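Example S7 (structure tokens).
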């Protein structure tokens, strides 16, 4: 029994160290611009938010929004997604993510408008068009 308790303590200590080292509390530096790719390169994050296509003018703002969204800071994430949309009005991922954060904040009419814009901008992107929350907002 003592060995099991010791093993669990070691595992927990390792997890705490990993979590603390991963979350320094500072925003990440914006990634360096890279070659432009099409929207098909959209990378879903485990929580459903989407990273921006590489090279988009709104990529850094969108990706910071994703980071804030993953931490549960919906009001902050919404601001970053709005900045991303302003920087690149055709960035479907930012519109989609804006819809996600607005939905979590209970701002359903605004979320529906953002989801509608995302669907119009990326009709062939299966991650966006097949999203259950987007379909719910758009009555699909």
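Recovered sequence:
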């Amino acid at each position: 029994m003592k060995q099991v308790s010791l093993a669990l303590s070691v595992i927990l200590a390792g997890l705490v160290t990993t979590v603390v080292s991963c979350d320094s509390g500072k925003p990440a530096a914006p990634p360096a611009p890279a070659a432009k790719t099409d929207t098909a390169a959209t990378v879903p994050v485990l929580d459903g938010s989407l990273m921006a296509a590489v090279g988009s003018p709104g990529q850094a703002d969108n990706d910071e929004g994703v980071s804030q969204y993953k931490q549960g800071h919906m009001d902050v994430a919404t601001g970053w997604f709005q900045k991303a949309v302003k920087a690149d009005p055709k960035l479907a991922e930012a519109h989609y993510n804006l819809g996600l954060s607005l939905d979590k904040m209970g701002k359903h009419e605004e979320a529906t408008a953002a989801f509608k814009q995302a669907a119009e901008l990326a009709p062939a992107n299966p991650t966006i068009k097949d999203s259950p929350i987007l379909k719910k907002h758009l009555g699909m």
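Notes on this example. The chain is about 60% helix and 0% strand.
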